[in-house]
Amino acid sequence: xxxxxxxxxxxxxxxxxxxxxxxxxxxxxxxxxxxxxxxxxxxxxxxxxxxxxxxxxxxxxxxxxxxxxxxxxxxxxxxxxxxxxxxxxxxxxxxxxxxxxxxxxxxxxxxxxxxxxxxxxxxxxxxxxxxxxxxxxxxxxxxxxxxxxxxxxxxxxxxxxxxxxxxxxxxxxxxxxxxxxxxxxxxxxxxxxxxxxxxxxxxxxxxxxxxxxxxxxxxxxxxxxxxxxxxxxxxxxxxxxxxxxxxxxxxxxxxxxxxxxxxxxxxxxxxxxxxxxxxxxxxxxxxxxxxxxxxxxxxxxxxxxxxxxxxxxxxxxxxxxxxxxxxxxxxxxxxxxxxxxxxxxxxxxxxxxxxxxxxxxxxxxxxxxxxxxxxxxxxxxxxxxxxxxxxxxxxxxxxxxxxxxxxxxxxxxxxxxxxxxxxxxxxxxxxxxxxxxxxxxxxxxxxxxxxxxxxxxxxxxxxxxxxxxxxxxxxxxxxxxxxxxxxxxxxxxxxxxxxxxxxxxxxxxxxxxxxxxxxxxxxxxxxxx
Length: 529
Prior knowledge:
Layout: E1 12-15, H1 31-44, E2 48-52, H2 58-67, E3 76-82, H3 94-101, E4 106-112, H4 115-120, H5 126-142, E5 146-152, H6 154-160, H7 162-174, E6 179-184, H8 191-204, E7 209-213, H9 220-229, E8 234-237, H10 251-261, H11 275-286, E9 303-304, H12 307-315, E10 333-334, H13 342-352, H14 361-376, H15 384-395, E11 403-413, E12 419-429, E13 432-440, H16 443-455, E14 466-474, E15 485-492, E16 497-504, H17 507-525
Parallel strand pairs: 1-2, 1-8, 2-3, 3-4, 4-5, 5-6, 6-7, 7-8, 9-10
Antiparallel strand pairs: 11-12, 12-13, 14-15, 15-16
Helix pairs in contact: 1-2, 1-11, 5-7, 6-7, 8-9, 13-14, 14-15, 15-17, 16-17
């Protein structure tokens, strides 16, 4: 597939997940988390890894201490901080000294560019601001450091006072900065503005200009792309776009855009197919949900539901896919629903029984069963694993891995409004019975724990599995407490995720159905029968 003219010009990829990404609401990394993500980024092939601000908190100081004991194969670890304070020499400034103490080969320092920030926030003169920027960078260069200067609020500053914004870049450049990174710190610029301003900067400072964009107008990726097309050669980003407020430019979107679509060299080509698993693993470490609609790496990126689309994709994937999913390590997914035709499910049936064709009675039987179940409240477009089991039951090739004898769930309301629960389960596997008990934060959590505990003696690989998402939707709410509920469960073993569904007027029964499907699907894919 011809994506564009392949330029193969090298871009410098700078990741700030461990500092900027950690500033996002709901994001928290332990030191161990940061070490793991650092190695993931290094293995993936990024050039710089910004680990945090050692002058701001003890955890980042500890991270850099630990990181000095680790060996990176490719990336340069970078410490981040501010310029020296007004009236304090760099040699006497605690933040600057913390940057040196981090022991990294590169440091990133940010300085004020917007004259409004200089006078109203920093409360300094424009001349004093230039002085502390120049002094800090010169001092760090004399200490043998590679220096990236983050020009904070550069685009807003340029729009308000272009002459002063360029003075700031010039001061940093003359002091020896290796990179001048233009930051859209408020995330409020549009691509045409970024392109015009970047062209001015890259013309003045060739081959040493970077771009750092926030996503407050949804433009972080677009602004980063036009920045590159306007001459920026370093691109700063975060995994999954994590970051303060609305986040930052998304590494998992930008790198495929730049490398696969525009032909720049960002990471080793052999690493690109690992980016989908990379994005998922990072989300698991951060304990953050993965947006299923994220381009390239989201679960829905190559999912097709409409009958016309499915028919076209099965004939020629290029009809509704802009790249082959394999290029980013993703898989094409044909969603099953009541609006689907036989062609939508044929591929899944043939994966089980290759002899089936479109007009086979089994195909129509499965389609009829699908529509019957959806009428009852099931929804399989988000629960492909359950549908796989439906197919096997209809084809007569389903063999259960265990049989429930009985279970009991007890839920108690504790102090402070907290709820605890316990579950007792008796299951049978190959003629052997196992009875186990487990407690949990609620009845479903207790049921899940007890079921897996009962089965792990027979199937140790289930220890890898845990629930990553749990959703309940009330169907036919006019029936009030007698209404059916649909439970959707997402499970993961740390490598893959899958979704299952259960429907019942009893939420425990619906949850049980989805839980059983989840574990049976895992065992089925392990080929243990």
